[in-house]
Write a structure and sequence with these properties.
Length: about 110
């Protein structure tokens, strides 16, 4: 319990639109990536921009093996691969399907 006493909650603001300074190709990569990673927030903007730039270079065939490794590391930081997803601690919101059954037992 004491371990998390001073812990702050993650930024709850949506990640928003890509920065204006991203190239069109990187902006396209951003727009493709963000909807697939719904846990991203404002605080992730920097790493998402880097990841978008690398993804755009890879699509253009301009990314070498070291760049691909960096892209893999960025994706891992974002929880965008199966091995790192478990570290994110995110689950989709549970839709409240309360039909009233069992209310007398649970309320």
């Amino acid at each position: 319990k004491g371990r998390y006493a001073d812990r702050r909650e993650i930024d709850s603001r949506e990640i928003g639109e890509p920065p204006e300074w991203l190239s069109p190709a990187a902006t396209s990569a951003w727009r493709e990536m963000v909807p697939t990673l719904p846990w991203l927030r404002q605080s992730h903007r920097g790493i998402v921009a880097i990841t978008s730039l690398l993804a755009a270079k890879m699509r253009a065939g301009e990314l070498g093996m070291s760049g691909m490794n960096l892209l893999r590391q960025c994706l891992g930081s974002l929880g965008a691969n199966p091995a790192d997803f478990g570290k994110i601690g995110w689950s989709p919101p549970i839709e409240d399907e309360d039909d009233g059954l069992g209310d007398e037992f649970f309320r």
